[in-house]
Amino acid sequence: MAIEIEQPCVELSNVAVSETHGEDSPYFAGWKAYDENPYDELTNPSGVIQMGLAENQVSFDMVEKYLEQHPEASTWGKGAPGWFRENALFQDYHGLKSFRTAMASFMQQIRGGRAKFDPDRVVLTAGATAANELLTFILANPGDALLVPTPYYPGFDRDLCWRTGVKIIPIHCDSSNNFQITPKALEAAYQQAVSTYTKVRAVLITNPSNPLGATIQRSVLEDILEFVTRKNIHLVSDEIYSGSAFSADEFVSVAEILEARDYKDAERVHIVYSLSKDLGLPGFRVGTIYSYNDRVVTTARRMSSFTLISSQTQHLLATMLSDEEFTENYIKTNRERLRKRYEMIIDGLTSSGIECLKGNAGLFCWMNLSPLLEKPTREGELELWNPILHEVRLNISPGSSCHCSEPGWFRVCFANMSEQTLEVALDRIRNFMHERASVNRSLFSNR
Amino acid sequence: MKLLSTKATCNSHGQDSSYFLGWQEYEKNPYDQVMNPEGIIQMGLAENQLSFDLLESWLDKNPDVGGFKSAGKSIFRELALFQDYHGLPAFKNALVDFMAEIRGNTVTFDPDHIVLTAGSTSANETLIFCLAEQGDAFLIPTPYYPAFDRDLKWRTGVEIVPIPCNSSNNFQITESALQQACEEAKKRNLRVKGVLVTNPSNPLGTTLSRDELNLLIDFINEKNIHLISDEIYSGTVFSSPYFISVMEILKQRNYHKDSHPDVWDRVHVVYSLSKDLGLPGFRVGAIYSENDTVTAAATKMSSFGLISSQTQYLLSALLGDKKFTKKYISKNKKRLKRRQSLLVSGLQKAGINCLQSNAGLFCWVDMRHLLQTDTFEAEMELWKKIVYEVRLNISPGSSFHCSEPGWFRVCFANLSQDTLNLAIKRLRSFVAESFPAAAHHHQSRESSKTRSLSKWVFGLSSRVREQEER
Question: Which pathway does this chain act in (chain A) (predicted)?
């Protein structure tokens, strides 16, 4: 007979058992539905089409071609003394100088040369996920808050809050002014913190915005800079989509504004960048923090020990990104292709009677389905999302998962699939809308 | 006032310790056989540079791997997009096989229980985040790797309490030392959450004995706490007694599974390719745990430090070549053994003994007899002489939190044989000139003279330490 002895459960940390990793939100439930029934043109044409993944798959050919023509980027040369040894041993948290220099120059090119970047201010991290968490560790203590405009990238709940113990207080934005950040909204968020005795440490913006797919206007950036200066707090500008603005002129980086002001008050500003979106290389884990604050640079560098970029990958990218002929052509062509995709999806949605926020950047559009809601609530939004996911079989991201305060908006990605697949998706949406319209008409005629 | 966080302004990054200051001196005046033959020889860097030729020849024979090709087909796109924190399956499979092979296949590892991280630096921190928080402590035997102070404490807020080990029994972990650590934790109002050991040990270069491992398992069972075994040097064991992983002990004690079924939930292994394969730049670390809650949390946390898919792919091919790994493991060990012997015998001729070691990339060198006084101050003075006059960057025991002054860690695998011989020559001259008596006095640990000297010295040193308050 088995003798059962109750075992005390050995404790794990609060962090380990908390839900702050956010993986139980609808954002991930959609992915699960896709994983179980993924669309494939040939083998599963009625499967779920993934439109919830902000990946850039439209410009791989250029990178592949470059690598084929420059094998030295992915190898270390033959014979002794080989470069392999040196590269394999290199774990200096300053990062490969040649890579930092190439990264600074690439960031400069993306901004049309309107801002200069000093390679010695570039801190390397394994992806922007790590960069954002690292900055939060550096700028805030547990219990402090960052102000983040809604709607925002769902991953921030984990990246900024999970292990850091820092809170996000939303800066509410809505469609009345195209979701732009206003001084009123900034102040309201700040006061919310004050009322709960919470110290605000920084404002964190994503520019161009995820999920809006739009750049932040210069005047708004100036308002934000004025606000953070007045409150004596930091500004983190996540510019991960900067190379995905459809036109070079439309994106204004906070770096340009600072440079135009001779870097006055710049030590409170920090920029995050990554090659995951613009170059379509999320697997390589390449992120960076660019800070105008010397102490932040030094501390971030030391902390980056926990999240260094593989020296093999640094070598590859240093070679590729220091080739200005390649980068200039890539940046220009990538923009054009993304714009074409955007126009394609907008045309398709418009012809189905669906409106989107006017976008000019990113890998997705911000779609307005609020006229279709039964109830103008989060529940109503999820009730609409369900059939879209399971019947129309499109995994799109409900605005509530992005903490949008207005129900009915959805983020729809367009760059992570072929044009043919996008056509299929647009067809399905068209059919869905027609069916809805005829159902409504029959309801109307029966009244 | 624009503040930074407490974490940003504190000193827990540890960069002001002597461990790092020695490196700075080296950077200012680095030895080069041709360009700067009088420069400082770096012997403070635990790198394995002895077996690159084996890796290089494999790369020459497998040029496609670097070029993102698999069976002639380009897999660039798939790799570029692959950011799944579960890791590349082919790489995980190859890694667990490699880990098993290093342990003579006495244990096997399940790839579903491996979490990949950007280096063991990240693995150790991630585990601490999962197992403990502010107000908690982990017990670590001294002497220990200096960067643990940063890796385990800095962002986690967790404390380290030392398990004091000393030369009276070759720095082995004892029951009384464990109790001493518990008492100190209690005094400091800290909840002990676990023990972390490095096996083989850095800086000792020794493997934990079966007795020590069993003692540790008994201890963590009694206290119902965790055990992290950092086995980063497991592939560097070059002579007997051979490597016994904590996993092997658990397997043996399956017999006691009925009374302690949850012990598997509390033992976690950390590994990395930085030492065995000499690839610290590639940032390849791993956590192995049978505790599903830990692996689930650690896997999500690994988002903050994933391994580049480009690197995962390269290594899946390298480690998947079983003919290669077998040859590599064996040759690497032989070369390490030869280097260690070279250093040990060279030091002996200078009247300097080392702790008897069977692993690692360094020796734990006994220079107590060269100290002016049995104090850490004297250790620093000797160290400065060795760095500036002898021009060798070796690591003083105090930077490893050693409780006895006079011990130094000296690396032997990060330099050429010629450079090592030169370093030995310089040290011999230094000892001959500065300590003529010591150079001829061949100390033996078995001599009673030394034993009584040790006791007296030990008694003196603990009194002096209280005054010094490190």
Answer: Alkene biosynthesis; ethylene biosynthesis via S-adenosyl-L-methionine; ethylene from S-adenosyl-L-methionine: step 1/2
Do residues B305 and B369 share a domain? no
User: What are the backbone angles phi and psi of residue A245, rounded to the nearest 5°?
Assistant: -75, 135
Residues B163 and B298 in one domain: yes
Residues in chain A: 447
Q: Which of B230, B276, B366, B374 is catalytic?
A: B230
Q: How far apart are CA A117 and CA A110, in angstroms?
A: 11
* Cα B25 → chain centroid: 23
Tokens of B202: 């850095």
Neighbouring CB atoms inside 10 A of B459's CB total 11
Distance CA A383, CA A399 (A): 13
Domain boundary, last residue among B279, B302, B325? B325
CATH at B37: 3.90.1150.10
One domain, residues B352 and B306: no
The residues near B231 (Cβ < 8 Å, ≥ 6 apart) are: B198, B199, B200, B245, B246, B269, B270, B271
Catalytic residue from among B160, B232, B329, B394: B232
Name the residue among B80, B118, B131 with its Cβ closest to that of A307. Answer: B118
Q: Is B275 an annotated catalytic residue?
A: yes
Expressed in angstroms, the distance from the first to the final Cα of chain B is 33
Q: Is residue B126 part of a domain?
A: yes
Alpha carbon A57 to chain centroid, angstroms: 15
Supply the pTM of this predicted model. 0.92
B140 with B276, same domain: the answer is: yes
Contact A222, A205 (CB under 8 A): no
Q: B97 and B181: one domain?
A: yes
Lowest model confidence (mean pLDDT) among A5-9, A224-228, A244-248: A5-9
The predicted-structure confidence for A343-357, as pLDDT tens digits, reads as follows 999 999 999 999 999
The answer on B154 and B126 residing in a single domain is yes
CB atoms within 10 A of CB B381: 14
Q: Which residue has the higher pLDDT, B3 or A191?
A: A191
Determine whether B145 is an active site residue. yes
End-to-end Cα distance, chain A? 71
Q: Which of A159, A213, A181, A177 is nearest to A399 (CA)?
A: A213
In a domain, B58, yes or no: no
What is the distance of C-alpha B81 from the center of its chain? 34
Number of domains in chain B: 2
Total beta-carbon pairs less than 8 A apart between chain A and chain B = 221
Helix residue spans in A322-418 (DSSP H): 324-351, 378-390
Q: Do residues B231 and B145 both lie within one domain?
A: yes
Distance between CA atoms of residues A244 and A277, nearest Å: 8
Q: Which of B303, B455, B424 is nearest to B43 (CA)?
A: B424
Q: Which residues in chain B land under pLDDT 70?
A: 1-3, 10-19, 254-261, 438-470
- Phi-psi category of B242—alpha, beta or left, where left has phi over 0 and alpha has psi -120 to 50? beta
- CB-CB under 8 Å, A311 with B282: yes
Domain residues for B297?
A: 64-325
pLDDT reported for residue A447? 52
Residue B469 resides in a domain: no
Look up the CATH number of the domain holding residue B94. Answer: 3.40.640.10
Chain B: closest CA distance from residue A420 (Å): 18
Structural domain includes residue B468 = no
Contact between A57 and B68 using a beta-carbon 8 Å cutoff: no
B23 and B43 part of one domain? yes
At A114, is the pLDDT very low, low, confident or very high (cuts 50, 70, 90)?
A: very high
Alpha-carbon torsion (B186, B191, B195, B201), positive or negative: negative
A153: how many CB neighbours lie within 10 A of its CB?
A: 22
Neighbours of B259 (CB within 10 A): 12
- Measure the CA–CA gap between B257 and B129, rounded to whole angstroms: 28
